[in-house]
Each structure stands twice: as structure tokens, then as C-alpha cells.
Design brief:
- By secondary structure, the protein is an alpha+beta fold.
- The strands form 7 sheets. It has an 8-stranded mixed sheet.
- α2 runs parallel beside α6 and α13 crosses α18.
- The chain has 19 helices and 26 strands.
- The longest helix is centred in the first third of the chain and has 18 residues.
- The N and C termini lie far apart (92 Å).
């Protein structure tokens, strides 16, 4: 019987290796730049065309190669970085496998031009599918130039999985940006289709490099971090929590000059910012960790972006404490978390615990910041939670009727259709459903927590059915507290209703009853908004999704969007934020179905068009609001899962006053 095991030829082996090393043009650029860095380059020039699919070039002023080394560099597992197996356990260079250049050459047309300072002429090689087809000597400066054309020309199955030109260009730009942050002493230049989009000075100053890459405005919103203990040195910069991006593109983790993607490091960053972020998103973080090479393992994957630590907990603590220390060390820590005025209104939830003495604010305390009531210590503890979007200036005199001051119709009045002018109309529901009973405070909290744990959209969640004793079902509004909470009674029970969350639920249910496609309105004049590159790519590639949500737009520039139609009730000042919110959801999970995106968009519209804290309501308006609320499907939680109603029975009130 003949053998059935075949030994693969060199060309096949190279193509298989290329599948691991060269996933897309950006990974090709990464490997070539890392080789240039290892060669001691002080300036690296990158040029691409058509997203890197048709042409890529990386030029450096490093040490260059001899003619013999130029021939060896296209052989698999040929490298100058290591010489024995012992070197693998203490790698100090970026490359060491000897797979990058032969893998790239195996799936492209490639040219290599390289010269050492001692050589009179440069060596020039032409390769086709990893095979040298021509060789000569040419004049060239000291250094190396790698040119790659027609990537994946001989592996069409891989080529068809590449994304659009804009997406691939964006990936390359992001990769080069992170490499420039890792090497601030190297001057980087990136040219895309003849236009220079990235240029760093190579001065060695990290903050100057950040300003070159992200702009001077961002550089003003960052703080240096420093940590040195237990053999771990952390340095870099972190941003204010108020400066956010919808993706992790602003978060860069570097270990010993190597860009890595390690879940542990990102988790430490997330926990360090816990409870400081004013809204969802990812703050700017640039971490550079220096550790003993023997304590890490970078030989996990051919791409060399994965890394393992000998002591993960030590690295976690180092990152966490370096960020927290940098944030709370500022002059006014209470202003680090937000760039708006401190909130005048906060929502209270009564818990059956004693009020402890107010602790001194520390880094740990900022994770669970709470403000105590000004009440005797024997009263139950009140945990205070900030309601986003319900912020008023703390020291501004509140008018008698803010609804009239802001040209907002009084609640309960009919709102006629209007052209989009930027003002925030309050739309009211005109349809009714069968009333659903409410839950108690404990039941509401438990239901909200269960939804959050299961990550189930509220539009599909099934609330618990709560029944009441007695026949008295008339809710009587008694008044309003802090122009935010409605106090009402039903029978012998006391109710506190958040007017903003209540109106948000009413608007959401009204929107949900409309047609499947979001109703939109054409703007009198098109709005031009600035978006970052990642969001622009998403907006253009997923245009059908945004059209279903009521948006019509076109590209007006590399980072400028011309918006012509928006969902009804969305004011012009909220267009950019609403699009950013949807983009963030898609960045987090690109496979989200249209129903989930529709829920998120409706929840945003409902929140931003609803009555705010500080809007004074009269008794008639309160009664109308309560009546409309109790005819919604889920009157006890807003579309974001926050409680709307807190109920106190006579027994619960008696316990508060120590009567039982």
C-alpha cells in the first residue's frame, strides 16, 4: 500500500504561513514597519494605494542588508533577531520568527531595495509569488524599501474577504498610529492615494506625538501616568473620562515596545474608569509597560499581538493604580469625571441600611461615589444615582415655567407638526393600551437588575404582573419636588415618579406603535457634522441600516457628513450624538439585528425629546402625565432600564419612622 501522507512543497507551505501572518494589508504594513524598527530606523515612510490592495511601500533609513542577506530574508525561518532556542525566552526585538517577509512575498509581487552604509550600490530584487525573477544593483540611500503589489493575487479566496478601500485604509492608519505611539523617537509619514494623512516629528516626546496624531485639542485633555514597582514600569498618558470615542481606537497598550491586545490590560483600564464615565464610550489611554522579557511570552501567535504574563495580577494592579492615581491627583478631582456643571438633581432609592459616616474621598471611593442626604443618621441610607440628560446648572435661577422659556409646549397640549428648527418639541401619545399595574421599589429594582444581567432589550422583556388590593385605582398628584419628582397617592400608598423617565417611557411606546421604518423629516437646510474615520466607514458601509432608522446623508469630505433627513423629533443639536450612539453599538457588535438597533435609536429619541428635570409642571400636567404613563406597557422602567416609580406602602412608611 502506498503512503497517503504527503510532504507539502515550499510554495504551499509559504501560502499557508501567509494565512496566519498576513491577514490583510494592515498586518502586512505592521510586519514591514516592525522590521524597519528592528533595523534601527529613525524615519519610516509608508505609502499605499487602493487601501493597500494594489500597492504598499515601506521605506526606512535603517542599517540595510547586504546582497547575501537580501536573498536570505525571503527564506522561511531565516532571521537576524535570534540565533538559538534560548533566545526565545528573552526576546527583545519585535520580529524573531523569520516568517513575515517570505509570507508576504508568497502572496504578492514584491520588490526589495536595500543598501548598507559600507556598500556602494543597493541590491534590488524582483519577486513573483516568493520566487526571485530579477536582480540588479541600483543607486539608493542607506536603508531598505519594501514594495508590495497585488496582494493575494494568487490566493483569490483570501482576496475576496478584504473589505472596502476605506476600511482597509482605516485599518492601516490605525496600525501606523499605534506604532508611532510606541516609537515617538521615530518620524513616521503615511501617504494614502497621494495624500499625506499622518506625520510625526520623531522628537521622542510622547505628548508631542499624541498631538501630531490626534490633534492639539486632545493633547490638552490628557494626564501623564507613572508607576514603578515589583519590576513593572508603567508610563504614558490617559484622558479625561469626558473625552470618549465609540471604539477602542484611542486605547493603546504597549509592552516592551510591542503593541499587544490583552484582555487583562483592557479590563484593568475599564475598572480604573469605573463610575467616572459620564456616558458610554472608551476614554483615551496610552499605556507603555516595561517588564523583564523573561516574564512574558510573545511566542503565542505568528501575528505577535497576543501576550502572556508570568504574573497577571501584578500587571493588573500596576495598570489599575497608575490610572486611578493619575486621575485623582488632579487639582479638582470632582471635575475630572465630566465637562458639564455638577448635577443639581439626583434620583434617590431607599435601602434598608443605616447611613454610615461620609468617608473621605479616595481613589476607591470614587468608584462608588454617593452623596448622603442631609438627614439624621438614624434614617435609612439613600444611594444617589445621576440621571443622564437631566442636568441643570446648579447655581442658575430656575424660571417659573422653563417649558415656556425653552419654547416647549406645556404638557397635555397638542403639538402641531413643525419643520425642523433645532427646538425640542414634546410629542405626546394619543393612543392608549390597557393599563398595567406597577411594581414596588424592590420589585422594580430586581426586574431592572435581571434585565441588565441577561442583556435583553427592554422592548422584548416580559415584566412581572403585580396586583393591588382594593378598588381604588385613581392616582392623585400631590405636588412636585425639585422640579423633577412627582409625588402622588393611590389609596393609602405613596408614589414618587421621575417625570423625565415617565415621559421617556410614554414617548418610546408611542414611537413603537408607528410603522416599522422610523418616520423621518427632511431638514430645511442640510446639516454638516464631523465624524471620525471609523464611524464614517461604518456610516457608508451600513447605509441601509441608518436609512431604516430615519437618516439620509452623503459624504461631504473625509470626516464630514452631509445629513439631509433625520428621525422625527430629533433636534439638530442631537444629530451628531445620535449617530455616534448607533455607531458605538455597531462597533461593539457589528452583528446587531435591526430590531435591537431600532430599540436603541428609539430609546435615544425618547430620552432627548422628553421633559427634563427642572421643567415645572402644574397639577393638570402631572395628572395627564401619570394617566399616560399608566397606559403604557411597562410603566415602571424607562427604555434604558432605570426605574420610573418608587412606591411606599403604609407599613414601609411606618418602618421609616420607627413606628413598627
Amino acid at each position: 500500500m502506498s503512503s497517503i501522507i504527503n510532504i507539502l512543497d515550499e510554495a504551499t507551505r509559504n501560502k499557508i504561513a501567509a494565512g496566519e501572518v498576513v491577514e490583510r494589508p494592515s498586518s502586512c504594513i505592521k510586519e514591514l514597519i516592525e522590521n524597519a524598527i528592528d533595523a534601527g530606523a529613525k524615519a519610516i515612510d509608508v505609502e499605499i494605494a487602493d487601501g493597500g490592495q494594489s500597492y504598499m511601500r515601506v521605506t526606512d533609513d535603517g542599517c540595510g542588508m547586504s546582497a547575501e542577506d537580501a536573498h536570505k530574508c525571503i527564506i522561511r525561518h531565516a532571521t537576524s533577531k535570534i540565533s538559538s532556542v534560548e533566545d526565545i525566552f528573552a526576546i527583545s526585538s519585535l520580529g524573531f520568527r523569520g516568517e513575515a517577509v517570505p509570507s508576504i512575498a508568497a502572496v504578492s509581487h514584491m520588490q526589495i531595495t536595500t543598501r548598507r552604509s559600507d556598500d556602494e550600490f543597493a541590491t534590488h530584487l524582483l519577486l513573483d509569488g516568493g520566487v526571485i525573477t530579477a536582480e540588479d544593483q541600483v543607486g539608493a540611500p542607506v536603508g531598505t524599501t519594501m514594495e508590495v503589489s497585488d496582494l493575494f493575487y494568487n490566493t483569490p479566496a483570501r482576496r475576496k474577504f478584504l473589505k472596502s478601500e476605506r476600511t482597509e485604509s482605516s485599518k492601516i492608519s490605525e496600525m501606523l498610529t499605534k506604532l508611532a505611539l510606541a516609537e515617538p523617537a521615530i518620524a513616521f509619514t503615511f501617504t494614502n492615494n497621494g495624500r499625506t494623512t499622518v506625520h510625526t516629528g520623531g522628537s521622542g516626546e510622547l505628548k508631542e506625538t499624541i498631538a501630531n496624531l490626534y490633534g492639539a485639542s486632545l493633547a490638552k485633555e490628557i494626564f501623564p501616568i507613572s508607576y514603578d514597582d515589583n519590576g513593572i514600569l508603567i508610563e504614558g498618558y490617559v484622558g479625561k473620562p469626558s473625552v470618549l470615542k465609540s471604539t477602542r481606537a484611542w486605547q493603546t497598550c504597549i509592552v516592551n515596545q510591542r503593541i499587544v491586545h490583552n484582555p487583562l490590560m483592557f479590563k484593568a483600564i475599564e475598572n480604573a474608569y469605573h463610575a467616572m464615565l459620564p456616558k458610554s464610550g472608551y476614554p483615551f489611554v496610552m499605556l507603555h509597560a516595561h517588564v523583564d522579557p523573561a516574564t512574558i511570552d510573545v511566542n503565542v501567535h505568528p501575528s505577535k499581538t497576543e501576550i502572556k504574563f508570568a504574573d497577571e495580577q501584578a500587571m493588573y494592579r500596576a495598570i489599575y493604580h497608575s490610572i486611578v492615581t493619575a486621575l485623582v491627583a488632579q487639582e479638582k478631582p470632582e471635575r475630572i469625571a465630566t465637562n458639564v456643571e455638577l448635577p443639581a438633581y439626583k434620583i434617590a432609592r431607599i435601602e434598608e441600611k443605616e447611613q454610615p459616616a461620609a468617608p473621605k474621598k479616595t481613589a476607591a471611593a470614587m468608584e462608588n461615589a454617593a452623596l448622603p442626604f442631609d438627614t439624621p443618621s438614624e434614617l435609612p441610607k439613600a444611594s444617589l444615582h445621576l440621571e443622564q440628560g437631566a442636568v441643570q446648572e446648579q447655581h442658575r435661577a430656575i424660571p417659573l415655567n422653563p417649558l415656556q422659556e425653552r419654547n416647549v409646549p406645556a404638557y397635555g397640549s397638542e403639538v402641531p407638526p413643525v419643520q425642523h428648527t433645532g427646538q425640542r418639541p414634546v410629542s405626546l401619545p394619543s393612543e392608549r393600551n390597557t393599563a398595567q399595574p406597577m411594581a414596588t421599589a424592590a420589585q422594580t429594582a430586581a426586574f431592572s437588575q435581571a434585565l441588565a444581567a441577561q442583556d435583553v432589550p427592554l422592548s422584548s422583556a416580559k415584566p412581572p404582573v403585580i396586583t393591588f388590593d382594593g378598588d381604588e385605582d385613581v392616582f392623585i398628584p400631590l405636588g412636585e419636588v425639585a422640579d423633577c419628582f412627582i409625588i402622588a397617592k393611590k389609596g393609602q400608598d405613596l408614589y414618587i415618579v421621575d417625570q423625565h423617565a415617565a415621559h421617556e417611557r410614554i414617548r418610546y411606546d408611542t414611537f413603537c406603535k408607528r410603522v416599522e421604518k422610523m418616520p423621518s423629516q427632511q431638514l430645511l437646510t442640510a446639516e454638516f457634522i464631523e465624524v471620525d474615520g471609523d464611524d464614517m466607514t461604518l456610516l457608508l458601509e451600513r447605509r441601509d441600516v441608518f436609512e431604516d432608522l430615519g437618516y439620509t446623508y452623503s459624504e461631504a469630505g473625509p470626516t464630514t457628513l452631509r445629513v439631509e433627513e433625520v428621525p422625527c423629533d430629533l433636534q439638530t443639536s442631537d444629530i451628531a450624538d445620535s449617530l455616534k450612539d448607533i455607531c458605538q453599538a455597531l462597533h461593539e457588535n457589528n452583528g446587531l439585528d435591526k430590531a435591537t438597533l431600532r430599540h436603541r435609536s428609539l430609546a435615544y429619541l425618547s430620552c432627548h425629546g422628553a421633559i427634563k428635570a427642572g421643567d415645572t409642571l402644574n397639577i393638570r400636567q402631572m395628572k395627564q402625565l401619570l394617566e399616560d404613563l399608566f397606559h403604557t406597557e411597562k410603566p415602571y422602567v424607562c427604555p434604558h432600564g432605570r426605574p420610573i416609580i418608587v412606591r411606599f406602602t403604609p407599613d414601609e412608611l411606618a418602618k421609616l419612622f420607627k413606628r413598627t
